[in-house]
Amino acid sequence: MRPQPVAERKPVVPVPLVKPVPVPMTPPVATLKPVKPPARPPHAPEVKQEAAAALGALTELGPGYEDAVIESFLARLDQMNAARQRPPMLPVPMQQPMLPAKQQKGAGAQTAMVITCVALAIPLTAIAGGMFGLIGLPITWAGIIIVALILGRGLGRD
User: By CB neighbour count within 10 A (0-12 exposed, 13-18 middle, 19+ buried), where does 69 fall?
Assistant: First the structure.
């Protein structure tokens, strides 16, 4: 080998006199605690009854019917879940049908007319019976009925 010229030599890096001290690994300050799974809500009594019935059917029927029993149990659970998610049906109070304004007005007017006719018929009957006897009563009542019919037909035309 041929010696290198002085200008081409690389500078020498000084080595430190202090040796590095190895730092021991310390465990992290915060330790992880095991997390408990959230508590499951207790099963409804219907679910427990259905599961017991499915298990009983499986033991009676044997392993050949395992798929059918499981399918029927899952179908029943689906029905129960659907029933829970559906809002409860509340009884609806019976309501009278709403009549149009003309019919409501006419019904009130007819009621008032009937009450007025009956209220006037009593004194008119007494006056006619006292003045004309038995002949005055049918004439008075015929007049009251004619007036009621005329007023009734007039109210129906609105």
Answer: buried
